Amino acid sequence: MGAMNEFKVLDPNGHTSTTWDPENEEELRRARRAYEALVRRGYRAFGLAQDGDGRSQQGFDPREKETLFVPPLHAG
Amino acid sequence: MRVERIARASLWRSLVALARSAFESRGRLAAVKAAAQRIACDRSRELLLRCLTPAQRAEFERTRGFTVRGQSGRRYRIAYGTTANVEVLGADGDLEYRLCASPADLPTTSVMLAQKLMLERREAEFLRVAVRHARPIVRDAGIHFVT
Questions:
Q1: What is the pLDDT along chain B (147 residues), one digit of tens a residue?
Q2: d(Cα A51, Cα B136) in Å, to the nearest integer?
Q3: Were A72 and a residue from A17, A21, A42, B121 both cysteine, which residue would form a disulfide, CB within 3.0 to 4.6 Å?
Q4: What are the extents of the domains in chain B?
């Protein structure tokens, strides 16, 4: 098992984390499916650096260690 | 007659015990919910603090808000809150007007994190969604709103 990657999805509990192994084909496939499903639902993905700096992601990147998903914004 | 009185008293005792138990369960449920909410708020705040720059973190600790810069160079102050809490700042740092755009059903500090990431990395999209709010100003006669 290699180093694990992580998805963090902002939700009412703060966030929910899911870890996956990018070297495991089945987990990689599942992570890609989850990523695409969230983006289809309007979530925005940001890669998080070690220091917490967020970069906007344009698509699924298996090299990204930590990805934060932000739910769709609504006007108030 | 006596048997009937005893049965009725027993029934009342059972009802009182049942009501007391329901009341205690409701109290326990409320306590569990409050604890879960506290944990969610702590997790949310922890993640926000991790994502702030040292300057933003210091500002947040001081004022519960922080300033971000959009890709356009424009500065915004994200105040503690979830509604109309994004302040658009002028060149002199004064509040020009407020914006409202946030994800639903998140702890306050998660909303602020979402707004920070969107403004710093997807500013145009944030501005497309956001609604502009009046800028409150205080005059002698009370509060007025400038749009």
A1: 788 888 888 888 998 988 888 888 888 889 998 999 999 999 999 999 999 999 999 999 999 999 999 999 999 999 999 999 999 999 999 999 999 999 999 999 999 999 999 999 999 999 999 999 976 655 555 555 554
A2: 37
A3: A42
A4: 52-146
Task: For residue B110, give the nearest of A10, A46, A73 by CB distance.
Answer: A10
Closest in B42, B100, B107 to A76, CB measured: B100
Shortest distance, CA B25 to any CA of chain A (angstroms): 23
- Chosen for mutation from A9, A10, A56 (greatest number of chain B CBs closer than 10 Å) is A10
pTM of the model: 0.83
SS (H, E, C) B43-88: HHHHHHHHHCCHHHHHHHHHHCCEEEECCCCCEEEECCCCCCCEEE
ipTM (interface predicted TM): 0.93
